């Protein structure tokens, strides 16, 4: 019985039987899928927005507004924002007159931080990910 266990073990790890041990190249399909998702998100961010105003609206609700109106998923690392002094319940106010969803998102992030250049966003796996400049992006859901 011991001998048959060894034989089975050898067969399981023999080349050609275990795909993880082959030298076959990894599939490029996931990268292509990510590129398609990212391109679709970029297109949505480039769409023009009508004029709107936020008057004492919390940051989290503002970002939720963009998710609904822009059809994008916004991922926010709230712990990183909190460490940078930005709370999701902070009220912001501004009037957006003309521009794209990307412009409106940048304006909102600037208002949330109290100045431009602190927060930005990247596109990752088709999601808009808010980043604190100088911090590594994470993928916590808002």
Task: Write up what this structure looks like.
With 142 residues, the chain is an alpha+beta fold. It has a single domain, classed as Phage tail protein beta-alpha-beta fold (3-Layer(bab) Sandwich), CATH 3.55.50.30. Helices cover 42% and strands 22% of the residues. The chain has helices spanning 2-13, 29-45, 59-70, 78-83, 101-113; strands at 48-49, 52-58, 74-75, 91-96, 99-100, 119-124, 127-132. The strands form three sheets. Strands 3-7-6 form a three-stranded mixed β-sheet. A two-stranded antiparallel sheet has the order 1-5. A hairpin with a 2-residue loop joins strand 6 and strand 7 (127-132).
What is the secondary structure topology, with strand pairs?
Layout: H1 2-13, H2 29-45, E1 48-49, E2 52-58, H3 59-70, E3 74-75, H4 78-83, E4 91-96, E5 99-100, H5 101-113, E6 119-124, E7 127-132
Parallel strand pairs: 3-7
Antiparallel strand pairs: 1-5, 2-4, 6-7
Helix pairs in contact: 3-5
